[in-house]
Amino acid sequence: MTEAFYKTLHSLTRPKILMLLFVPLIASLVCWMVVFWFFWGTWVLSLSQLMQDTWLVTTLQGWFSANASGVLSFLSVLFLLLLFLPLAYLTATLLTSIFVMPIMVNLVVKDNYADLEMKKGGSFAGSFWNSLFVGFVYLVGMVLTLPLWLIPGGAIAAPLLLGAWMNKKIFSYDSLQDFASKSEFEKVAKAKAGSLYGMGILLGFLAYLPVVSFVLPVVMGLAYAHFCLSALRTHRNANVEDKATAR
After folding, report:
1. Which of 55, 98, 121, 164 sits between 20 and 30 A of 146, alpha carbons compared?
2. pLDDT in tens, 119-157
3. Are 230 and 179 a contacting pair, CB within 8 Å?
4. Which of 192, 136, 202 is nearest to 164 (CA)?
5. d(Cα 232, Cα 4) in Å, to the nearest integer?
6. What's the distance, Cα to Cα, between the start and end of the chain in Å?
7. pLDDT of 97 strictly over 90
8. Where are the alpha helices (DSSP H) in 21-123?
9. 188: part of which helix (H) or strand (E)?
10. How far is CA 119 from CA 26, 59, 177, 184, 246, in A?
């Protein structure tokens, strides 16, 4: 994992990769700012109607001696604000997976893994649907765990763990789709499952750094590309040695 981080930092000095850093997140932020601008009022009203007469509204109304409409408006706005960043991050991750990863993987392979044979165990279509499915599960998980954000530490733990799972699922597939066979992908993913998830958690902490958070999806994809391709090379070398020993 340390080697993958080092190679990621080195790859980030490449002009072509630097040009890709901010594109997904800027595109995502602009997209969701426009969507929120047009639908903000409708969503606040819909959420207010949905939460009307719920236990949470009644409890908060009693605590703060506020009228129901005020509590409903506050909760609706809070919910949408909490949802904005996960939506932006999810969209940036999907854009990185679909448009940026193919370019980055080719650059990374050319610089560091030119000896790897392409076995095409995956496909662009497979990557696309994998990203959409995993992204949908991530979004549902974020919505379901929003109440945990009100608990001390919950606003950090829930997004961090869900984000690590999403990045592991999306970027490991994208990194290996052209170079690993289906059986190789399954073996590498199983053998390195803990490390892949752990790397997602470690890199996830970078989201809380002001500047790095803006480029995190691309950095994540780059780190997973280095780690997965290196693991694939190690797996193949081990198989060659085992066959030589058997003879």
Report:
1. 98
2. 999 999 999 999 999 999 998 998 888 778 778 888 788
3. no
4. 202
5. 13
6. 33
7. yes
8. 23-51, 55-64, 68-95, 101-112
9. helix 182-191
10. 34, 59, 8, 9, 24
